[in-house]
Design goal:
This protein is an alpha/beta fold and about 400 residues long. The protein has a single domain, classed as Aldolase class I (TIM Barrel, Alpha-Beta Barrel), CATH 3.20.20. The protein contains 16 helices and 10 strands.
């Protein structure tokens, strides 16, 4: 196997090893995929200021996210169907994150359940929650996260309705997946992936199947799921969830300064500037482009995180320079997981850590907490202004 030097190398390997329908579920966006592409390309347009003859010894990327110590300001984002990129994928990713000292966030739509991940890890993980119509189930799901010792609840607000993703439609990816003959044939060629799936009992949505009436088995899950995402979601629901949870609350899916102010008013501990990886509103701004205006609006009132398009340590540094106190990687760790399992997730984290460390040093800083917009060119202009 060729040496893995960057996240792109992991992507290429994952594409070879993961069935097409699941690889493209992770590696795609909605409609024309313009926002999906801009999430990454807008990072590439930001230029860095190099400094020389400065002391680069004793560097540290250690930081905190919502008061939790982290080895670098990076968390693993909540991603649905992670356990279909690799058998027991959520458990393997959570283990890698724990060993590396960064948070792991488990999706509501995970394959491995909250309890599965809790049994196989020792560090508290974060749990991502979708707002469902079935409030009894929603409350019990929050209680399960509490019982598992989850240290933060990540509440996603940008999936009241599901954006159309053309590649998922063409691949027959539903909940549960209904593979076409073409996809079944493709799966048969992924021997490594198939052997892993044969070796695990975890093939369904572990947080749902068996926990609600009407979704006792995978065959009835599609109807239940399609009816459950709540288009009537409001800030009153956020207040109810915050009270029921009672712990650290992170609100995900903020792309507007006014919404950010409402999140502050809700009492959340942090917000995630996010467009759902370009998988919801195609044509929305990239996360990194909108980040400065949200920092300007509420950055002194709430901790601001961001996700979308982060594929390198340089991307992390640019986000930090523009005001993010934490970042999330989704596709980057999924590529590692699909390529090499837990070892691949660790490799993705190592790549990002090394790139972040070296770039920070080249920009004249030794501590991530000291990084500001002075590393950008020009330093006194926000992202959308200095691009002209």
């Amino acid at each position: 196997m060729a040496k893995i030097a960057c996240i792109e190398d992991l992507r290429v390997l994952a594409k070879r090893r993961v069935p097409k329908m699941f690889y493209e579920y992770a590696d795609s966006g909605s409609w024309t995929e313009s926002t999906y592409r801009n999430n990454a390309s807008d990072f590439a347009r930001i230029r860095l200021r190099q400094k020389v003859a400065v002391n680069m010894e004793n560097r540290s990327l250690a930081s905190t996210m919502i008061g939790q110590d982290v080895s670098m300001p990076v968390a693993l984002a909540p991603t649905g169907l992670t356990g279909m990129q690799c058998a027991d994928g959520e458990i393997k990713a959570a283990k890698a994150a724990e060993k590396f000292g960064v948070p792991f966030t488990l999706s509501t739509m995970s394959i491995c359940s909250i309890e599965d991940v809790a049994k196989n890890t020792t560090a508290p993980f974060w749990f991502q929650l979708y707002v469902m119509r079935d409030k009894d189930y929603l409350g019990r799901l929050i209680d399960r996260a509490k019982a598992a010792g989850c240290s933060a609840l990540v509440l996603t607000l940008d999936l009241q309705i599901i954006g159309q993703r053309h590649r998922d439609l063409k691949n027959g990816l539903t909940a549960p997946p209904k593979p076409t003959l073409r996809n079944i044939a493709n799966m048969a060629t992924k021997v490594r992936w198939g052997l892993g799936m044969l070796g695990t009992r975890r093939h369904g949505f572990g947080n749902i199947v068996g926990h609600v009436s009407g979704a006792e088995k995978m065959g009835t899950l599609a109807d239940w799921t399609n009816k459950q995402f709540d288009p009537a979601l409001s800030w009153d629901d956020v207040a109810w969830i915050k009270e029921r949870w009672g712990g650290k609350l992170i609100i995900k899916g903020i792309l507007d300064a006014e919404d950010a102010k409402l999140a502050v008013k809700s009492g959340a501990d942090a917000i995630i500037v996010s467009n759902h990886g370009g998988r919801q509103l195609d044509g929305a701004l990239s996360s990194i482009e909108i980040l400065p205006s949200i920092v300007e609006a509420v950055g002194d009132k709430i901790e601001i995180h961001m996700d979308g398009g982060i594929m390198s340590g340089q991307d992390v540094l640019k986000a930090v320079a523009l005001g993010a106190k934490g970042t999330y990687i989704g596709r980057a760790f999924l590529y590692g997981l699909g390529a090499m399992g837990e070892q691949g997730v660790t490799k993705a984290l190592e790549i990002i850590h090394k790139e972040l460390d070296l770039t920070m040093a080249f920009c004249g800083h030794r501590k991530i907490g000291d990084v500001t917009s002075d590393i950008l060119i020009p330093a006194d202009k926000v992202f959308n202004r200095y691009l002209g």
